[in-house]
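Quick one, tokens below. Sequence please?
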């Protein structure tokens, strides 16, 4: 399971497989977000079957995020230390079984336990997947490949809206059964398809195997990594405020049914984020041919536009304006998703890129969990969750400024 300890470039004859890897991981990325988010779209059905307060309902997502975030640095280190592809398959298999098990929970305590375990199993996926894509795509296709993979998260977010619809038609447990078993079947297929890249070097340069302490020391002695840490943590406030509470906000603000609110709050956003990840990745790759800081500037520009759009969502009584603002937010905020791992590749030691992404996830998910739980507390206190969206708008402006301050360690042309 140990990773090869050599430094060399991927051969050009692996390019077709490089895109195959993006394609098969795209499906896993969609399942990753679908399985974690769809519970937020079936609030009414779930709380009728398993009585709980709004704060407890928010806690179902918060506990997942806190556990997910806490384990992310270790999961990222495992992806740097061991075979990335096998870690991905194992993660998918376990979280899919837990998705199925979620639909068989009978009490709030059982739901909390299963959601915590899902946080453990899902933590291993994203750092390993993004690092594996970076291993295959070195230079001129890196941001676009990352962006395409991340569109899977957008599709998963959009499909999560089906959770509310299916819960109305078949009961809230049905969706967890369907998507849980699909994930198990896909993990079996992936075992035979997914592989780490085969390195071909004229002369191998031996490097020591990564150690967790050395990885963390290298990352935290880097000023630009600290800026990325603050950036990603603040951006989580916006992302999880929208993902965790926008369906409920649409239902109550615009008097929609549970199914219509879930689809309105996720589907338009998913389409916009899908487009944003492709546009942001392609733009950054193209611009980087003439500007070394392109992958830094593209996310910053996006956030300066996403901020006022989010503020509009929080302060309009017109559904069309809310959908328009939400779509602009999704389009522009997604520039960051396509470029974060490519930026990490330019500011950190290549041996620790998955660990670095795991550390970023730790703060991001901690902030995200607090944000989703705070939404429930605000509702219990009869305060509109639009307050969260206003805070998110301000946070994105700060994020743009932080990103501009990042300095490059490694220049990657193309």
């Amino acid at each position: 399971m140990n990773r090869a300890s050599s430094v060399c470039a991927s051969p050009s004859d692996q390019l077709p497989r490089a895109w195959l890897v993006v394609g098969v991981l795209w499906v896993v990325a969609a399942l990753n977000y679908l399985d974690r988010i769809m519970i937020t779209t079936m609030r009414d059905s779930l709380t009728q079957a398993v009585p709980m307060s709004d704060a407890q309902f928010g806690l179902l997502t918060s506990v997942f995020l806190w556990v997910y975030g806490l384990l992310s640095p270790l999961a990222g280190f495992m992806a740097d230390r061991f075979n990335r592809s096998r870690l991905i398959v194992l993660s998918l298999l376990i979280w899919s079984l837990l998705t199925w098990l979620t639909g068989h929970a009978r009490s709030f305590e059982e739901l909390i336990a299963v959601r915590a375990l899902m946080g453990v199993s899902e933590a291993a996926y994203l750092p390993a997947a993004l690092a594996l894509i970076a291993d295959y795509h070195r230079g001129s296709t890196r941001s676009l490949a990352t962006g395409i993979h991340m569109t899977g998260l957008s599709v998963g977010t959009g499909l999560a809206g089906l959770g509310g619809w299916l819960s109305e038609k078949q009961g809230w447990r049905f969706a967890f059964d369907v998507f849980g078993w699909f994930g198990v079947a896909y993990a079996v297929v992936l075992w035979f398809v997914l592989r780490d890249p085969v390195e071909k070097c004229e002369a191998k340069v031996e490097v020591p195997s990564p150690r967790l302490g050395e990885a963390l020391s290298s990352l935290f002695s880097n000023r630009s990594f600290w800026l990325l840490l603050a950036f990603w943590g603040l951006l989580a406030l916006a992302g999880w405020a929208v993902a965790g509470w926008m369906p409920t906000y649409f239902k109550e603000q615009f008097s929609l049914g549970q199914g219509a609110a879930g689809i309105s709050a996720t589907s338009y956003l998913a389409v916009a984020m899908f487009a944003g990840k492709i546009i942001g990745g392609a733009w950054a790759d193209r611009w980087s041919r003439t500007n070394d800081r392109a992958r830094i500037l593209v996310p910053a520009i996006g956030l300066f536009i996403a901020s006022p759009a989010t503020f509009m969502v929080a302060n309009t009584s017109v559904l069309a304006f809310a959908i328009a603002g939400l779509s602009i937010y999704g389009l522009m905020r997604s520039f960051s998703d396509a470029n974060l791992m490519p930026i990490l590749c330019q500011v950190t030691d290549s041996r620790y890129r998955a660990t670095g992404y795991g550390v970023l996830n730790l703060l991001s998910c901690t902030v995200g969990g607090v944000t989703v739980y705070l939404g429930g507390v605000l509702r219990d206190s009869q305060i509109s969750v639009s307050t969260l969206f206003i805070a998110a708008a301000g946070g994105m402006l700060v994020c743009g400024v932080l990103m501009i301050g990042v300095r490059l360690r490694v220049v990657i042309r193309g």
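The chain has one domain: 14-196+212-404. The domain at 14-196+212-404 is CATH 1.20.1250.20 (Growth Hormone; Chain: A;).
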